[in-house]
Amino acid sequence: MYHSNYRMEAPQMLVRLPKITSDFETAFNAWWAAQTDDFRSTHDELEHRRGFKAGFTAGRKKTSRRYTFMTGKMKITIWAADVGSARALAVKEADRRFREYGLNPPKAGWSLRLLGNRGS
């Protein structure tokens, strides 16, 4: 029998959530596991991870190009299909960054200067 002041609590259970891996990590781990032991022992995994990530990112964005804009001292990099949509996305990103610091974007708009574009 329980004493009247005794309060029964449910036991705390440890809940293990599955580790969330990105598509990149899954693809890299599969590729790395497919390599021979000799290859893995003579090559640096982190170096190959960086190279794999660059190729993986570019491969996923086949129809997009990378555009870099500058406004003041702020550099904004955008992936988009063409320069017009990239400029519109850059304006939204600049507005978001300003609001993040509690500042209002300029009323006259942003003066974006295209620094370069890369991609397919």
Order of strands in the sheet with most strands:
2-1-3
Low-confidence stretches: none
Structural class comes to alpha+beta
How confident overall, as mean pLDDT? 82
Largest sheet: 3 strands, antiparallel
Counted up, domains total 2
Tell me the total number of β-strands: 3
Write down the overall geometry.
elongated
Helix content: 40-55%
Strand content: 15-25%
Radius of gyration: 25 Å
Q: Helices and strands, in N-to-C order?
A: HHHEEHE
- Tell me the distance between the termini: 76 Å
How many helical stretches? Answer: 4
Give a written overview of the molecule.
With 120 residues, the chain is of the alpha+beta class. It has 2 domains: 38 residues, no CATH class; 55 residues, no CATH class. It contains 4 helices and 3 strands. Strand 1 and strand 2 form a beta hairpin. The longest helix has 18 residues. The chain is elongated. The termini are far apart.
